[in-house]
Design a protein that fits this description.
Order of helices and strands: EEEEEEEHH
Number of helices: 2
Structural class: alpha+beta
Radius of gyration: 19 Å
Strand content: 15-25%
Number of strands: 7
Distance between the termini: 52 Å
């Protein structure tokens, strides 16, 4: 995401244009004062080494690759930098695209690491292996 410069700034502080999809992102509707990703495509920018420090030299696009559920049930996005591969976790926002969030959550189920058509056979083999210990 590209920060909007002083001559391009929207009417509200914190408005920016998403580098990945071009959507104009405003702070309204996020449910937080600290918007760090696009609610439309869920991409972010690699700006931090530690949350909020703005010390990363990379500046690459952070692609959402997964979601995880924190203690207490709060969802967070896992982002991976397309340039350097760094990983980070970010809280979801109230106005994030729910279809995209569910798509990320269901990705492992939709593409399991084994052939689904052989699940019965694999289950029998594992059951046999576990019994024989």
């Amino acid at each position: 995401m590209k920060k909007i410069g002083p001559n391009e700034r929207g009417s509200k502080e914190g408005t920016f244009t998403c580098r990945a999809c071009g959507f104009t992102v405003t702070p309204e509707g996020a449910g937080t004062r600290h918007r760090n990703h696009c609610p439309r495509c869920l991409c972010s920018l690699h700006l931090d080494v530690e949350p909020g420090d703005r010390a990363a030299d990379c500046g690459g696009t952070m692609e959402p690759i997964a979601v995880w559920v924190r203690r207490g049930g709060e969802w967070a996005l896992i982002h991976r930098c397309r340039v350097c591969g760094a990983l980070s976790a970010n809280r979801i926002a109230a106005d994030d695209d729910p279809v995209k969030l569910l798509g990320l959550a269901l990705r492992p189920v939709a593409s399991p690491p084994f052939p689904v058509e052989r699940i019965e056979e694999l289950s029998r083999l594992l059951d046999k292996e576990w019994r024989n210990g």
